[in-house]
Amino acid sequence: MKLQRKNRRALALGALAVSGALALTACGSDDTGGAGNGDASSSTAAGNIDCGDAKGQLQASGSSAQKNAIDAWVKQYTAACKDVQINYNPTGSGAGITAFTQGQTAFAGSDSALKPEEIEASKKVCTDGQAIDLPMVGGPIAVGYNVPGVDTLALDAATLAQIFDNKITNWNDEAIKKLNPDAKLPDLKIQAFHRSDESGTTDNFTKYLKAAAPKDWKYEPGKSWEAEGGQSAQGSSGVAQQVKQTEGAISYFELSYAKDGIKTVDIKTEAAEPVKATVENATAAIGAAKIVGTGKDLALELDYTPSAEGAYPMVMVTYEIVCDKGNKADTLPATKSFLNYVASEDGQGLLADAGYAPMPQEIITKVRETVSGLS
Question: Molecular function (GO) terms listed (predicted)?
């Protein structure tokens, strides 16, 4: 750090205050989500941010799956744009969209694209416009488990569906044994946890179960959990914590929450080998997604039943929800500035280290064009 600071003293006086603050930010990193890890690249990324006329407070809420990504982005952005304070509340996708359509937030995060009724509701707060979906961050939905003595576990969609529908209730069940012939599966009750709040992660997880195991998953996909039985917890952090502390537990959450020793399931697909939940395997799957939104809306259609080797089937994309036109005048400059950074090469570059998948180039290019035209 001393060498970096010495070099910075050679910069022009007008840039000195900013670079010094960025140096302190890089050195004081708490390493949340993998950004700001104290290297020179973090400082450089923050230095490339265009604050424009951004100032004041930005209130936002929604997807808890992207919270670690938001934390990483906010850390870098506010180091450069000191007149902006961003408060992101990870209330879940459903609550985030509701808060946005009620005019309480500048933008929302959702792991599911807007429904027609939500777009209609947004027209009350988007003057002469409507809410649109901007895909900003992706990644695999990991299935975490806590089974003592089992370091590697493979499951398929049918078995997962039966576990989360309370049809398979013990870890030494024959269906699990068949998929894991070399594992020493204990005589231990399965403790399946799902989200208690409305969640885009739940929506994507149940879309996968419905698409890949329709005979075993009779429920319609959605943000709210429909199956009976099991236990619940609030947010991605809540279910991840339950897995960590409960023997026999299993749940689903964004890969960035699979830390502190939480093991994740390899998913058996039509491919020859079970697929691990990795950023690389998710990025490949997102690259095959189709843009199905109309106008400036960039909603994507994902494939939950891939057969290619290394294609992870449970992929999620988190959208930032904003008005295409009619954003509030007092928050528009900060909203555009922040989202411009999030969609930039530097912003997307933070994601892999934080356990997320950046958007493919052809998608993020369209996102950048759309953000620049927000009004």
Answer: phosphate ion binding
In the chain, the number of structural domains is 1
CATH of the domain at 254: 3.40.190.10
Which residue, 86, 67, 114, is CA-closest to 331?
86
The residue whose two tokens read 């049918």 is 158
Domain contains 201: yes
Confidence (pTM): 0.75
119 Cβ neighbours under 8 A, 6+ residues apart? 130, 131
Which residue is listed with tokens 């411009």?
340
Task: Single out the residue of 87, 70, 97 nearest to residue 198, CA to CA.
Answer: 97
N residues, the chain? 375
Please provide the DSSP assignment of 286-325 as one string: HHT-EE---TT---EE--SS--STT--S-EEEEEEEEESS
Domain membership of residue 238 as a residue range: 141-286
Considering Cα of 32, then 257, then 237, then 201, what sign does the dihedral take? positive
**Structural domain contains residue 120:** no
Q: Has residue 158 been placed in a domain?
A: yes
Q: What is the pLDDT of residues 178-213, one digit of tens each?
A: 999 999 999 999 999 999 998 989 999 999 999 999
In a domain, 64, yes or no: no
Neighbours of 218 (CB within 10 A): 12
Strands (E), the chain: 56-62, 84-89, 107-110, 131-145, 154-156, 191-195, 231-233, 249-254, 263-264, 266-268, 290-291, 300-301, 315-323
| pLDDT tens profile 322-349 | 999 999 999 999 999 999 999 999 999 9
- Residue 218's SS3 state is coil
